[in-house]
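From the methods appendix. Each design record in this collection lists the tokenized structure first, followed by the designed amino acid sequence. Records were kept in a plain field format so they could be parsed without special tools. The example shown here is representative of the layout used throughout.

RECORD:
FOLD TOKENS (234 positions):
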């Protein structure tokens, strides 16, 4: 259950998806082009976005990139394209999942449900102040991030992190695979109060990367977007 924004220019298909989602207990907003999708998200932030790739004005990739400048909700792309390269492109701009057209409504509803559930289960990102956000310890691939103790370690070796570096790591580790723009990081980690250039974010990330040692390579630069943390195995 949640508010789902359906972005699809084919009116019949958009309405059909809306009816199915409403029938499954979700609230739905509709947008029929990229520009109004971006506007709708700024007006009321949905819990999930179903985003058609081919739209008349801004294409789905551009819309997704815009969304990721400020938001972390799941984005499922609807696409007739099946090429691997497009899949990669979509992930680069921060899409979470794909449904390839033509799809069954059953499949679509299942993916919506799965993505909404994942958000609930995921550790929520820190809000930057440390006052909110999930306090659960995150642990995988030799990495441990303990927000309560404000401590992190790799393979049992404690990391000596500044508070901002810790917040960056917590945000990354709580959202593996998710691309974050520099603007978003400034908003979240520095609460928008940042007198530097975007370059300063890069400096912090570079330092964090170095301190992470063998896991440093998991903090990846996403060209034209910002950064993403890929989940280490284990
Ligand atoms: Ca379309």
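DESIGN:
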């Amino acid at each position: 259950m949640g508010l789902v924004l359906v972005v699809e220019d084919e009116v019949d298909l958009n309405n059909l998806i809306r009816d199915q989602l409403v029938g499954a207990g979700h609230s739905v907003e509709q947008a029929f082009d990229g520009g109004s999708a971006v506007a709708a998200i700024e007006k009321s932030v949905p819990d999930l976005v179903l985003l058609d790739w081919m739209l008349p004005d801004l294409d789905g990739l551009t819309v997704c990139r815009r969304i990721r400048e400020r938001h972390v909700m799941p984005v499922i792309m609807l696409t007739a394209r099946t090429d691997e390269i497009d899949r990669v492109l979509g992930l680069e701009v921060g899409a979470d999942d794909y449904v390839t057209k033509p799809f069954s409504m059953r499949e679509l509803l299942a993916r919506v449900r799965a993505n909404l559930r994942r958000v609930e289960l995921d550790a929520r990102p820190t809000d930057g102040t440390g006052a909110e956000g999930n306090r659960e310890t995150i642990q995988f691939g030799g990495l441990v991030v303990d927000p309560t103790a404000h401590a992190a370690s790799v393979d049992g070796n404690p990391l000596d992190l500044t508070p901002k570096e810790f917040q960056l790591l917590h945000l990354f580790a709580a959202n593996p695979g998710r691309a974050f723009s520099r603007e978003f990081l400034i908003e979240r980690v520095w609460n928008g109060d940042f007198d530097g250039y975007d370059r300063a974010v890069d400096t912090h990330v570079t330092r964090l990367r170095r301190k992470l040692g063998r896991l440093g390579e998991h903090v990846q630069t996403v060209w034209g977007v910002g950064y993403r943390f890929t989940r280490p195995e284990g």
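APPENDIX NOTE: The pocket of calcium ion is lined by residues 9-10, 52, 54-55 (CB under 6 Å).
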